[in-house]
Amino acid sequence: MLFQINHRTEYRYHEPATEAYMELRLSPLETPWQIVREHAVRVLPHAAISEYTDFFGNRTGFLSMTHRHDHLAIVNELVVETRPREISGELLAITVGEARQVLGSMMTDVYDYLQGTEAVVVGGEAAVWSARFLPAKARLGEAFDALNSAIHREFEYVSGATTNETPLREIWKNRRGVCQDFAHVMLSVLRTAGIPCRYVCGYIESHPPKNQNGGPMVGSLATHAWVEVLLPGGIWAAYDPTNNCRAGLQHVSVAFGRDFRDAAPVRGTFKTAGGQSLKVRVSMRRITS
Amino acid sequence: MPNRLYKSLIPGSRGWNEVLDPRGEPRESYRAILGKLEVLSRNELRRLDDGMEATLREMGVTFSIGANRAWGAKAWECDLLPQIFPADEWAALEAGAIQRMEAFELFLRDIHGERRILREGVLPVQVVLGSPYFQRPACSLPLPSGSFLHLSGLAVVRTEDGVLRVRHHYFANASGVSYMMQNRRALARVMTPFFEGHSIRAIVDAPTDILESLRSQAQRNEPVVVLLSPGPASAVYSEHLFLARRMGIPLVQGSDLLVHDDRVFLRTISGLEQVDVIYSRLADPWLDPLVFRADSLLGVPGLVQCIRKGSVRVLNAIGSQLADDRALLPFAAKIIRFYLGVNPLLPGLGTFWLGDIDQREMVLSDLEAFEIRPLYGERVLTPPPGMELTPPLRKKLLQEISKRYSAYVAQPRLCEAETIAFPGGRPAARRQDHILFGRRLPGGAWEIIPGALTRVGAERSAHVASELGGGSKDTWVGSPQFQAAVEHEEFRRAEPRMPAHFVTSRVAEAFYWAGRYLERAYSLANMIATIEALETEELNPTERQLYRPVWNKILPPLENREQISRRNISSPPGRHSLATDPAESGSIASSVLRACSNAQSVLDVLSVESGEVIARLVRIFQSRRAGRTPTDESEMTRVSRKICGQIRMLVPEFFGVAEATNVGDGGWKFCRIGQLLERAVISANALSILAGGLLPDRARGEAPHAEEIRLSAFLRMLTSRDAYRRIYQMRIEPRFAAEMLWGHPAVPRSVRYCLEHCRESVAESVTTNHHSSRRALHEIDSILAAIAHTPWREMFHGAETDEISAHSTKLMERILAVHSLISDGFFSHQSGLGQSPISAAS
In this complex, is the C-beta atom of A12 within 8 Å of any C-beta atom belonging to chain B? Predict the structure, then answer.
């Protein structure tokens, strides 16, 4: 499918800012299932962007604005083609125990994707779920599907129910949250079970045209978040617990990391006497199916 | 035959003694110096010790302990008896230290790259990649000359078996070079005869050598090198000051630097200077809020991107701190063997990482025998030796470390060999360790500075760590060839790259705000004192009603003008809180404290004499009584008047003393600019209500008496009634008062006087090639012209009061806006970057 995406992040300051420094993770990786046809990042007021590749492989832009400004907008415009992402049944038929052994031997490379972080706490409730869904004998494909569905079933998607600061244990307790929380829950279970996995930030087509493939998806007007699990052989499989599906044709992945902090699409620091308000809008329109 | 001096200190069963051999005789290297000490009387020894203390204090060597240390930096102590390393022993130590530094350099490069040592299973992955000091962003950063470490330290300790062992790594952040040098300077000054007959290697050129290493990193000729410090809150700020001065490079804080166009600039009052090399004394997590801790105010946003793009070099490289993680100490021998293929020359002190279950169980089963420390830093969790690990203490300790065992290591307790020190001139047994310092030469090889910082425990039984107080020893390294014994005060001076008058914007801005807030406090104190006098002594109740409506507006304008509310000063409690309450916006207390915190942030460039006045100002509001509100109104009045009186004396004293004692460079000038601009604002603000509130209310048929009272109070509050009488020698009339306070060239309160003198100081700070700072001058000129062209007398005669008010208010607002121009031109450099500001304050 071919999509046109427009993602606008806008800061408005209560008092003009004299300096702003931003890091942008807005450049989707080119993969066989994700071809970037057009891509442009615009900054208003204008600022030059210099690029580098971060620790997690994200193409990252840096900009500094060192003159007085009262608002700052970053517009990411994309045309992306998505293609089916097949994962061999053989890989998914490996058992959790076998996978853990294979991946454990690659510790030096997968270490970061096995550790808890401040946002993705391992253990606790996650240990109960990990024993329930990821026993050593279970086959990967079935186990991941079951975990994905369970999160979707037992957690309620409530827009605005949580903030970036809501600790994971509260999400576990209240069983509600947004896509970011669903992803963190899944990561915490997988990492507790010793399965390397990462956080994905991206876009999702939430309202496909009528009479087309794919039903409506949750994720809507902001960026979306899901999870990728590392399979033996270094293949990543993508799961979207918010929508109880594998991430597929309607998902465009943009940035990866251990948790939402690593993969934040726009992150900045400002020098201003007052506060600021943030507005994010994403539109994803299907051009062809 | 043991000498009387240290007879009582014969080691006996305690093992190795640094100074005495097992028979109690001085060791060869100490024989000469002990011979000189033992002929001195107790009194003479005490006098010498006092001399050392006085000398170090005079040199300004301090070391802060504890959190509450704004003014309480602790003086540094250096013992009379130096530590002496004979040349052959030093050579072995040197080789061992270099070997470790080389091995850990290779380790850092490997971990941030291929990770061979992990892939080959030599080290557990968890210890390395799980270290809180492993910085992922460092993995792809270019290294200065290909190396992480350039200026490193290493702590060694001699254990009771007489063997020197490595105790801590200070590879990333080596603190103490300046203390090492100051010890030598002080000892050479006080104990000059002691050096005779000794051949000691010189350390005096260490800073110049370090500068050479730093400059060799730069890609430009004439590079700008700066020392980045966390600021005066750092316990070792006096070291940062010493090194920066000796190297002739700017000592900066994060807010002095600005990232633009992938380059780092130093903000100075004459514009932006590109920075080539940063000698960082800031730990990695604080360096760049965009990459590391977002809450860091000490760092420079965007710095890491400049490193990535290669426009700036930061030493030691980001990521180096991993090598100092104590959890790696147990693996040091493996690391040396893995990278260098040889055995360690210098053994390590037995260290156990509590993150490893076997090591942990070993330690916990015999807890009394260990010192528990975090992975980094100088804290010790176990009780100091001499204090028993009682069951409650043990429980508390276990509670703390069990939260995260992996954050702690254990090292044997009381393992240090003893030495002899002369605290207060009396010989006593002490424990000690030594920090060695190395620098990478421009060619890439390591050189160990031939000296050390020897840290001495406060008591025989105490820990050895500067964080815990205690003292130090000058450290002599014997020279194989004969060298001039006494260290000369002269040293190779570095050629400073920055001009002599160079002042950073942060310093200028702090001075500026100190000046503004002090002037504000002073004006307010005059106003409140006047009101107190009028209210309590001079006016009757009817008369008070006549001037009260206006006084409120005369008070200095609040910064946050949206919040402005009428301040209630018609009662003693209102005036008391406006004088003493630091929480009340715009109060004398809050203005003074803000002024003082600005002044204290630039203490290193403020004269000691003016610093003392600042300390006295702070004390007014820090005394215990200031926190308590009296209940009785007459007591409140007494306190308000007393404080106003003190401020009215101390603020002018500060400006006077500062003028008389500060080095007249550009930084101090901004204090005066702030003072004059603030006074101009306060006068203009008061004048803008003159027309509105002070003219007689003809509609109500007011008596001239009412006007007289108001105008007299008005001029007194602005400390200008006396000036008016001298100039006009007649009753007070609004038109003359306006004419005088707006435009008189010689009345210190007049707007014209303030702006003209302010202009003079600004003009001295403008450099010819710096256009943006000229805008402030043009605007001041234009305001002065507008004041000069206003026919004040005629206006009050003919024009409507509204018209006068509008005209005055407009002038006042233009004066307020001069601040933005000064700020843009000298502090924030808004317009200096080739981009036009979207909306300059106009």
Answer: no
pLDDT per residue as tens digits for the range B672-708: 999 999 999 999 988 887 766 666 665 566 667 777 8
> Measured between CB atoms, does A115 come within 8 Å of chain B?
yes
Q: What is the pLDDT of residues A11-52, one digit of tens each?
A: 999 988 989 999 999 999 999 999 999 999 999 999 999 999
Tokens encoding B428 = 């006593």
Which among B220, B212, B238, B192 has a CA at the least distance from the CA of B80? Answer: B192
Q: Which of B141-155, B440-454, B594-608, B805-819 has the lowest mean pLDDT?
A: B594-608
For residue B278, the 8-state DSSP code is E
Q: A55 vs B136: CB contact, 8 Å cut-off?
A: yes
- Enumerate the residues of chain A whose CB falls inside 8 A of the CB of residue B309: 50
SS3 B385: coil
Say what the pLDDT of residue B284 is: 94
Whether residue B290 lies within 8 A of chain A, CB to CB, comes out as: yes
Whole-angstrom Cα distance, residue B449 to residue B205? 10
Let me know: does B507 contact B602? Beta carbons within 8 Å. yes
Where do we find the tokens 């947004």?
A178
Q: Does A64 touch chain B (CB under 8 A)?
A: yes
Sign of the dihedral defined by the CA atoms of residues B728, B732, B733, B736, in that order: positive
- Other residues' Cβ atoms within 10 Å of the Cβ of residue B559: 11
Which residues, including other chains, have CB under 8 Å from residue B250's CB and lie 6 or more apart? Answer: B224, B226, B227, B244, B256, B266, B498, B502, B504
**Residue of chain A with shortest Cα separation from B116:** A108
Q: How far is the C-alpha of A165 from the C-alpha of A160, rounded, in Å?
A: 12
State yes or no: pLDDT of B499 exceeds 60: no
Residues of B in contact with A62 (CB under 8 A): 262, 290, 302, 305
Please report the ipTM that was assigned to this predicted complex.
Answer: 0.94
- List CB contacts (< 8 A) between B838 and chain A: 16, 45, 67-70
The Cα-based distances of A269 to B265, B296, B820, B823 in angstroms read 18, 10, 22, 21
Q: Which residues of A touch B828 (CB under 8 A)?
A: 18-19
Cα separation, B579 vs B759, in Å, equals 31
- Closest chain B residue to A69 measured between Cα atoms? B838
